[in-house]
Amino acid sequence: MTTIGIHDLAVATASHVVELDDLATRAGIDPAKFRIGLGQEQMSIPGLDEDIVTMGAAAAQRIIDRHGVDGIRTLFFATETGIDQSRAAGVHVHELLGLPRSVRVVELKQACYSATAALQSAAGLIARNPDERVLVIASDVARYELDTAAEPTQGAGAVAYLVTADPALAVLEPAAGVYTAEVDDFWRPNDSVTAVVDGKLSVSAYLDGVAGAWDDYRSRGGVDIDQIDWFCHHQPFTKMAVKAHRALGQHVGVELAPELVAATTGYNRRIGNSYTASLYIALAALLDGDADLTGARIGLFSYGSGSVSEFFTLVVQPGYRAATRGAETEALLAARTPVDVPTYRDLHDATHRDSTIDVEIAPESPGPFHFAGLSGRARRYTRD
After folding, report:
1. Edge to edge, what strands does the sheet with 4-13 contain?
2. pLDDT for the residue numbered 207
3. Which of 234, 245, 348, 370 is catalytic?
4. How much is the average pLDDT of 121-143?
5. Whole-angstrom Cα distance, residue 65 to residue 329?
6. Is 80 a catalytic residue?
7. Choosing from 80, 107, 151, 310, which is the catalytic residue?
8. Hydroxymethylglutaryl-coenzyme A synthase C-terminal domain: which residues (predicted)?
9. Which of 19, 50, 112, 173 is flagged as catalytic?
10. Binding residue per annotation — 30?
11. In the beta sheet, which residues pair with residue 177?
């Protein structure tokens, strides 16, 4: 039987970083409220020439540098920070990367969940033709209004992963549990560049999704909880993963060790919220960690506000270490430029841009891809 799963996984982020201790000091808040209460230390901030396209392309370029483009017939771009109501952001990435014309490109949207929809869709395509490979990109900028409770849960990040038959990293198991419930916990209106969030309701809806998706997973033939070795949960802030882990244990009547989820939080603590990418950044942190995961089963909980949830499992493959990118990701995080709070606030304000006004943006970030501005209301991108 052909196995299908994640063959490679690469992380990208923005070029600037804000220390949440600095944000707390400016607001007159004890920094422990962010470090301990939210489980966050830093948040990545895009420069003027960075957005979901540039970050997504940077992550995908690392996949292509290692594996080439042969067999890639589909590019899924998952995001809730869409740059256009019609055209997929992935079409820009397709051009920047020089992918073949014989590649279908589709954007998927359902808050933070859609990268998991992309994974399941990719598995279906490969089940039909095991010679094909699917490139998935999840890229987002989490942006809230300044001086609000949600402000310290901003961030920016992307992942790209390659879905194939006989994967080197992790095999996707067949059972999956899903749960959907319409709830106004979080959304971003068409006329806003910042999201609207009801924090307490969002936490409650998230935890409802954990229980509902788990119950459906078990009803579909999923393994018992004692057969799962590690857990990755969606991380709008890393303390939320800890809450979800505890709630799942309470729901099934067992006490789950906190270290089974703590190992997934290292990158997200430093990148901040990355919406669709955060679950897979958590997976990267776990795979890059010290523990030997060979043969381990990882339970993943994916949540998208509004809301859609899914619980599924991956099994880590022998030799997976050769495909991980820990040193590369650490270097990316270390290379970010620290900015003070006034500079961060200026960058935040600059996102309020009128598309009817042409603008040229000079390349400033060190990455290979740049948002070059607007011309005739169309977005322009360049590559070094």
Report:
1. 104-108, 72-78, 133-142, 155-165, 4-13, 170-180, 308-316, 297-304, 230-233
2. 96
3. 234
4. 97
5. 15
6. yes
7. 80
8. 177-245, 259-318
9. 112
10. yes
11. 311
Which of 343, 327, 334, 324 is closest to 270 using CA atoms? 334
Q: Among 178, 185, 187, 183, which residue's Cα sits nearest to residue 203?
A: 185
Three-state SS for 202-234 is HHHHHHHHHHHHHHHHHHCCCCCHHHCCEEEEC
One-letter amino acid of 371: F
Residue 232 among the catalytic residues: no
Is-catalytic flag, 234?
A: yes
- 351: confidence class by pLDDT, cuts 50, 70, 90: confident
pLDDT band at 60; cut points 50, 70, 90: very high
Task: Give the integer Cα–Cα distance in Å for 212 and 132.
Answer: 33
Q: pLDDT tens-digit profile of 236-289? A: 999 999 999 999 999 999 999 999 999 999 999 999 999 999 999 999 999 999
Amino acid at 100: P
- Based on DSSP, count helices (H) and strands (E) in the chain, helices before strands: 12, 17
CB of 72 closer than 8 Å to CB of 129? no
Residue 48: closest CA among 384, 364, 292: 364
Q: What does the radius of gyration of the chain's CA atoms come to, in whole angstroms?
A: 20
pLDDT class for 197, splitting at 50, 70, 90? confident
Residues 301 and 310 sit within 8 Å (Cβ to Cβ): yes
User: What does the pLDDT average to over 181-205?
Assistant: 90
Instruction: Please give the structure tokens belonging to residue 240.
Output: 């939320």
Query: DSSP code of 357?
Result: S
Other beta carbons within 10 angstroms of residue 184's beta carbon come to 14
Find out whether 273 is annotated in a ligand binding site: yes
User: Cα separation of 160 and 60, whole Å?
Assistant: 5
- pTM to 2 decimals? 0.97
